[in-house]
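Write out this protein's structure.
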Amino acid sequence: MTRYRKLGWKSDLRKANLRNLTTNLLYHGRIKTTVHRAKEVRGMAERLITLAVAEKDNFTEVTAEVKVPKRDASGKRIKEEVNGKQVTVFETVTKTIHKDNPSRLNARRKMLSVLYPVTAVPEDGRKKKALSYSVDMPRKLFDEIAPKYVDRKGGYTRIVRIGQRKGDGAEMAYLELV
């Protein structure tokens, strides 16, 4: 007897699909899928949220001086000529950085082994590629999702059955964060 549902796929396809569903659940907060897939994704998502809750405040704040390119009013880099070459002008800025302690770094790496990279695209922007940005999913887990569930001991997700799919009659459900 197996400990998980095979869902009619080979292992590499099954793992990829479950990772994709887990990433989308944590990014959007709610996904629509079949009941069997939802039950499999629920376990993966709850393990990641448990990791995030345990390591939520496990970091040290470090002050660092960082060189940042100077920009003009339109956002372009300011350049000056040095020895006949155009060189970008930099300024030094003091920033506060959250440095992960070893156990939080390990948790971040475990999360990244499951989650796919997410690129957010603004809905109303015309230059979608220029305005898109990469989302740091472990940071989202630590900073946005984990604080909501500090007082809970588990049960971070909910499965709501919504009936059968029209094409093949598969039982559909919403999987959402509580």
